[in-house]
Amino acid sequence: MTKLPDLESRRAIEQSRIRALMTAQRAGERAKLKIGPEHVAWVKEELCIGCDQCTIVCDDDAIEVYPVKLRSPILDVDVNKKAKILREPCTGCGLCVLACPTDAIVMIDR
Ligand code: SF4
Ligand code: SF4
Which atom of ligand 2 is nearest to the CA of 55? Predict the structure, then answer.
């Protein structure tokens, strides 16, 4: 029968494998990003779920969330949120792209 210490050790190995995989994946994504002052972030509104993750990581106060009416016919919620990038303060760092869980943000040329 499997003992608790065995499980804990397998879990630690698996955690470290997943962490290494995710770090490598993020590094790959970051390498492909158009980063720098000649680029600016852009939100694809249809993919944005208003989760606020991008505003948390943006150090430059370059993202605003604004209320929109929820379009779902089945959910009884009046207001949802969408993010929008403020072009001037955006430094093109790309952090928001990596933070967005729905891939709603892309980097475009200024
Ligand atoms: S690219 Fe950087 S500065 Fe621009 S909105 Fe995203 S996190 Fe903020
Ligand atoms: S992280 Fe992505 S989904 Fe969440 S508010 Fe920002 S743009 Fe929208």
Answer: 6
For the chain, what are the domain ranges?
A: 1-32, 36-109
Is the CB of 43 within 6 Å of ligand 1?
no
Global pTM?
0.74
Architecture of the structural domain at 36-109: 2-Layer Sandwich (3.30)
Dist. CA 92 → ligand 1 center (Å): 5
* Digit-coded pLDDT (tens) for 37-74: 999 999 999 999 999 999 999 989 999 999 988 766 77
Q: How far apart are CA 37 and CA 96, in angstroms?
A: 15
β-pair partners for 81: 67
